[in-house]
Design goal:
The chain is mainly α. The chain contains 20 helices and 2 strands. A hairpin with a 7-residue loop joins strand 1 and strand 2.
């Protein structure tokens, strides 16, 4: 049965790659996008004649970072690591989305390993991957220059390394730092706090301290992508001031009505908070979202000390008090699916 599920997953992946081959193989026109960038909102603010999407900005900014631009000055509101990965894809493969596909496939491999670590059978683990891959918001992350798929890979790496035991804690901590250096650092910190809470609840003081000792690796993972900037201008106090400003910027940006993530998950409705505050349908929505969310949270009854459950509850709470976008569920839905299937585990 496991082989059948593996074949199904393989053909689903091949079908999607063939279906998106036009955008995967389209060469990234650096001169065109540099021209667009020079006339965009990042240069002229509200008076710009060109409005770039987040995905457009991530791609051209990542390319420019690799060619000498300072991430502390160019598009500094999001950390540089994810954009650097996209820029590497442009430089090496002339594609703005090839690294998203590569990292998406890495995420599937890591999610399978994680499912097996949680004692799902090979068949159930592959069913989880099929459900995850069939989710439109996950597939969209494979074929657009977004940052969320990179965070998912780093979160999966952190989980897999953590479950390997204390000798691997430094990898778990390092990838937490990478999470923090990919998008706003608070998501990575949230994961770090959840790990500490999990170890504390288990009452194993020695293991708790072993993880605390890896804190320098969290800092290392966060600082590494900024290293060229810091070497060029070794003002670490200025770097900390910049992070304080960034925190204030995101805090101001997050002043939105509470609970916006719930209608996205349960009804496929996105209650926007800008302009006229319209309600937009979420085209990626499927019944898998509410079903896996409810089942994943119910799984607490079977395993009240589950680290995955703590992540689901913590991330859901975090998303309920900040600006919620459907694509942010890339860090939630795969684990909701896996946690739901643990209810079927014998």
């Amino acid at each position: 049965m496991a082989r059948t599920y593996l074949l199904i997953l393989f053909f689903l992946i091949i079908y999607q790659i063939v279906n998106h081959w036009a955008i995967l193989s389209a060469p990234y026109d650096v001169l065109f996008w540099e021209n667009r960038f020079s006339r965009s909102q990042l240069i002229f603010g509200g008076k710009a004649e060109v409005k770039l999407s987040d995905y457009d900005i991530y791609a051209i900014a990542g390319y420019k970072y690799l060619h000498g631009d300072d991430p502390l000055k160019l598009d500094p509101v999001s950390p540089p690591l994810g954009k650097l990965i996209i820029g590497t894809g442009i430089t090496v493969f002339r594609s703005a989305i090839i690294m998203n596909l590569i990292f998406g496939l890495m995420a599937l491999v890591l999610l399978y390993i994680l499912s097996r670590q949680l004692r799902l059978s090979p068949s159930l683990a592959l069913v989880a991957l099929i459900l995850i891959f069939l989710d439109p918001v996950f597939r969209e992350s494979l074929f657009s220059s977004n940052l969320d798929i990179f965070q998912l890979v780093f979160l999966c790496l952190s989980l897999v390394a953590f479950f390997r035991g204390p000798r691997w804690f430094f990898i778990s901590a390092l990838t937490i730092g990478f999470m923090m250096a990919t998008k706003f650092y608070l998501t990575g910190l949230l994961w770090f706090w959840i790990v500490l809470a999990y170890l504390f609840l288990r009452g194993n003081y020695r293991t708790f301290m072993q993880f605390i000792y890896t804190l320098p690796f969290v800092a290392l993972g966060f600082i590494l992508p900024y290293l060229p900037s810091l070497l060029h201008n070794p003002d670490f106090i200025g770097f900390l001031r910049f992070q304080r400003w960034l925190t204030s910027w995101w805090a101001g940006n997050a002043r939105v009505p509470w609970g916006g993530i719930f209608p996205i998950i349960f009804y496929g409705e996105w209650h926007t908070w800008w302009d006229k505050r319209v309600i937009l349908p979420v085209p990626e929505w499927t019944w898998l979202w509410p079903a896996s969310t409810v089942a994943g949270l119910i799984s607490f009854v079977k395993n009240p000390r589950s680290l995955i459950w703590l992540w689901l509850a913590g991330y859901l709470l975090f998303m309920s008090v900040t600006s919620a976008f459907p694509r942010y569920l890339v860090l939630f839905l795969p684990f909701a699916v896996i946690q739901s299937l643990t209810l079927l585990r014998v």
